[in-house]
Amino acid sequence: MNISYLDRAKERVNNVPLLINMVSRRVRQLISGQRPLIKPDSPNQPPMDIALKEIAEGKLTAEIAFVAPPRESNTDSIISL
Q: What range defines the domain where residue 20 resides?
């Protein structure tokens, strides 16, 4: 693992668990045949380094969407007269 890519990626994504998830998902994509978003340093560069370099260079980002939990209908508290 290239430590300089890791440090630069951590500057962009300061949430370590999120960074781990981004890297692991991207590595799976690269292994399955998706093309890198950056030019690899060498033909044999490991997919993890490619993913970290993509994040470090701002080519790969994450979007976190907040989904509110469904509200429970509280029909027990309704009084019918």
A: 3-56
